[in-house]
Amino acid sequence: PRQLRVQISNPPDTVKSEHPRVLITGGLGQLGVGLARLLRKQYGKNNVILSDIKKPSDEVYNSGPFVYADVLDYKNLQELVINNRITWLVHYSALLSAIGEANVALARRVNITGLHNVLDIALENRLRLFVPSTIGAFGPTSPRDPTPDLCIQRPRTIYGVSKVHAELIGEYFHHKYGLDFRCLRYPGIISADTEPGGGTTDYAVKIFHDAVNSKTFDCYLRPDTRLPMMHISDCHRATLEFLQAPAGQLTLRTYNIGAVSFTPEEVAAEIRSHIPELRVTYTLDAVRQSIADSWPRRFDDSNARRDWGWKPSFSLPELVSDMLRSVRAQRE
Ligand code: AKB
Prior knowledge:
12 helices; alpha/beta; single chain; seven-stranded parallel beta sheet; three-stranded mixed beta sheet
C-alpha cells in the first residue's frame, strides 16, 4: 500500500533552538489538551502538536496542530518527529487501571509495545521524553502511608506492571545511553472539562458532576478508601516545571508528586458544605476496590520538593470549590 505522508498544515512558529517542539501522544485523554494549552502559552501555538487515534472536537482542532498518530505504528511516529523537528515528547497514551484489567492484551500492546516505540524514537532523535507513571505502580507489599520514591513495587494490575516497566527501562536508557527520560508518578487527577478513561480514581471526578446534576452519587469504592489525588492544574504545572528543570538538579528520573489525599466520605463531606442535600450511596465494585486497596494512601514527594521545587497549590477545600464552579459553569 502507498505510504501516507504526514503533513502538519501549520509551520513551526520559529525554528529557534531555544523553543522546544513538543509532540503529545494520547493527547485526547484526560490530560493532553490542558497540557498543550499550557505549553502553547509558553512556547507558541504551533510548537505543540497534539496527537491521538481519535477524532478531535472542533474546539481542539481549531486550537492548534492536531495529527493522527498510533503509538503502535513506529514509522508513522518517526515521520512525525522528523518532519516536525520535535525535541520533546510527552507520552500520554495508555490504558488505565480498570480498563486495562478488562483488556489485558490491548493494555500490554499499548502500554508496553507503544512505550518501546516511543523510547526508540526518543533515543534515535535525542528527544527529552516525558512518561507519566502513577500511584498504580505500587502494590500490596509497598509501604502505603506514606509511599516513598524508592521502595518495593509489586503491582497486581497490567497497568501498574507496564508503568514499573516504563520507569525501569526509561531509567536504564538514561543511564546507559544518556536518554533525557523524565517520569512523574501522578495521583488520581481531578478535572472538570475532560473525563478520565477507565481508572480506579474516576469516582472522584464523577462525584462532582453527579452532585451538581442530581445531588446523588453512587460510589463504587468503600467510604474510607483513601487515595492520593490532585487538581488537574497542579498536574499540568508539575509536568511543565519538571520538563523545564535543569538536568543537573535531578537526583532521580522518576518522582512521586503529591497534593491531597482523601476518601469518598471526606470529599462528599466537603462537597456538602456547598450542596448540603448531596446523598451518597455505596455499591462496591470488587475489581476497583481491590486495586484501590493495594495502592498508596499518601505519597511522600519530598524528593520532588527538594530537587526541583514541587509544591501543590490546591488543598481539598480549594479543589472542591474550583471543581463545583467549573462543573456549574459547564451547565450554563
Ligand atoms: C487510574 O485510576 O487508573 C489512574 C491512575 C491513578 O493512574 N487515574
